[in-house]
């Protein structure tokens, strides 16, 4: 627990410089935010004045220190301080669009403080990336942690909500336009807070969302075939338009636009003021929910057909399959409005061709794992379906708004503090470079590249050889796979730690 000590210096003489406590000792801010169970780990902040003493602030001022410490956020869940130079040559903080590459720290006595990061967000982000690698690579060995085939929830089903929640928290910190209720005397003399131009900020948000969407299209559109496939390339007529990063870009865009345009210019001094300031955003989120529910339960889904490329062991060969619907409000795989909208707007060839409902009891004798079709399997088992489709992505964006308002709470209200840094430093490093780990690790670009170097046969490569070695040592294929995945997560943690020590942070 860190306590703020009294200082008898006059406020007008305060030269407030914020820095992470971890740069001096072992203290750092850690907030482990678990959206599902509503648990909030607490934040640690330290404010130092010019003579090295600690200034004490009242309950309505602690959030101001937090506000000064965290100013910027990257598009894919990164927090950095982007410093510009104003006309007078003074260092200023840009809140328009943050930078992913920190400014180089200076050893000069009058230099501005190094880039600040909200460690709790890094830790939670790193935990989410590690969880994604775990469920993607070990889900085949342990179907219970893999995505639920249709109804229900498993460990893997928390990954996307966690990412979207983190995006929302980041946005709330990125688009602070002013120090919240901050007396001018408490604002650092070397810092000038910019009030961003809304139109310019909107353009940059749209550009950043487009870049994120295009990156997702490259990684998940079908061009890279992943591990165990030493090929690449995609038929443009069958490219998959939507995916994980595309969904994040949609949530980021909607939440950012609402943060730029829908926040009222009200000083928050009570819960009533807090509600008045942000109620437009709440109405927007509620409107998205209403829009989703109207289409989900009100849209009529007619009978449709698709071209089945392969019907597995228990059925006849390829051909046109007819799926009989003619219903409204169905939540089952074949006749829901989510799939219908995607088929009409995107086309069946541009959807995910291996939907998760192939692991349902109706479509797999090995359910909840993949397997041969049962003898009485329905016609829709091999129909395409995109779990990151248009309508579902609009609803998923509401999770960004949940994180957005959680960030507002961090900014406006005092939070008690505790810190546990040493046990989470690996996750913190991973959170600092989540984008590169997602691309190389979670999307299997690195492992697929390693598999390209083999001895005589493609099966004799370092990746498969290491996994087979662990399976032999543990005398279990499943537990050997789990050990391999844990080793993979540790590897990426060390890689991200190396990048952090070199000051390398991949920006979009």
From TrEMBL:
List, alphabetically, the InterPro entries matched: HGSNAT_cat (IPR012429)
Keywords, alphabetical: Membrane, Transmembrane, Transmembrane helix
Which residue range or ranges hold the Heparan-alpha-glucosaminide N-acetyltransferase catalytic domain?
117-274
* A Pfam cross-reference name: HGSNAT_cat
Q: Where is the composition biased (Polar residues)?
A: 104-113
Superkingdom as given in the UniProt entry: Eukaryota
Q: Where is this region: Disordered?
A: 84-113
Q: What is this protein called?
A: Heparan-alpha-glucosaminide N-acetyltransferase catalytic domain-containing protein
Supply the source organism for this entry: Malus domestica (Apple)
Taxonomic lineage of the native organism: Eukaryota, Viridiplantae, Streptophyta, Embryophyta, Tracheophyta
């Amino acid at each position: 627990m860190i306590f703020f000590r009294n200082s008898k210096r006059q406020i007008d003489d305060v030269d407030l410089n914020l820095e992470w406590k971890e740069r001096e000792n072992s203290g750092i801010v850690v907030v482990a935010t678990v959206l599902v169970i509503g648990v909030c780990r607490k934040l640690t902040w330290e404010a130092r004045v010019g003579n090295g003493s600690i200034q004490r602030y009242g309950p309505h001022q602690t959030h101001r220190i937090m506000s000064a410490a965290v100013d910027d956020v990257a598009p894919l869940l990164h927090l950095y301080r982007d410093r510009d130079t104003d006309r007078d040559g003074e260092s200023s903080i840009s809140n328009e669009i943050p930078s992913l590459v920190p400014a180089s720290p200076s050893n000069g006595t009058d230099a501005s403080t190094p880039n600040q990061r909200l460690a709790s967000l890094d830790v939670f982000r790193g935990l989410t990336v590690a969880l994604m690698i775990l469920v993607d690579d070990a889900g085949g060995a342990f179907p219970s942690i893999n995505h639920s085939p249709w109804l229900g929830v498993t460990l893997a089903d928390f990954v996307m909500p966690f990412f979207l929640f983190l995006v929302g928290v980041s946005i709330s910190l990125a688009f602070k336009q002013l120090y919240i209720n901050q007396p001018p005397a408490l604002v650092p003399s070397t810092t000038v807070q910019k009030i961003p131009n809304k139109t310019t900020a909107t353009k940059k948000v749209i550009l950043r969302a487009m870049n994120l969407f295009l990156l997702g299209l490259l990684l998940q559109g079908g061009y890279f075939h992943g591990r165990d496939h030493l090929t690449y390339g995609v038929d443009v007529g069958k490219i998959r338009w939507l995916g994980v990063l595309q969904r994040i870009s949609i949530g980021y865009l909607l939440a950012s636009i609402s943060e730029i345009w829908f926040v009222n210019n009200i000083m928050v001094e009570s819960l009533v003021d807090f509600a008045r300031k942000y109620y437009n955003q709440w109405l927007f989120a509620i409107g998205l929910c209403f829009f989703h529910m109207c289409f989900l339960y009100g849209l009529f889904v007619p009978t449709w057909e698709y071209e089945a490329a392969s019907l597995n062991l228990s059925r006849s060969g390829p051909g046109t399959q007819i799926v009989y619907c003619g219903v409204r409000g169905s939540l089952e795989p074949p006749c829901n409005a989510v799939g219908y909208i995607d088929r009409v707007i995107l086309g069946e060839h541009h959807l995910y061709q291996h939907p998760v409902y192939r692991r349902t009891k109706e479509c797999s004798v090995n359910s909840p794992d993949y397997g041969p079709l049962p003898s009485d399997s329905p016609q829709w088992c091999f129909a395409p379906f995109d779990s990151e489709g248009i309508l579902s992505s609009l609803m998923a964006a509401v999770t960004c708004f949940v994180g957005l308002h959680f960030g507002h709470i961090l900014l406006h209200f005092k939070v008690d503090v505790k810190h546990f840094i040493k046990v989470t430093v690996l996750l913190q490093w991973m959170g600092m470079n989540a984008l590169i780990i997602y691309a190389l690790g979670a999307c299997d670009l690195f492992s697929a590249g390693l598999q390209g170097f083999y001895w005589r046969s493609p099966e004799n490569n370092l990746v498969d050889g290491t996994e087979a070695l662990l399976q032999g040592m543990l005398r279990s294929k499943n537990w050997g796979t789990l050990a391999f995945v844990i080793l993979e997560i540790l590897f990426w943690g060390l890689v991200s730690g190396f990048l952090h020590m070199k000051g390398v942070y991949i920006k979009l």
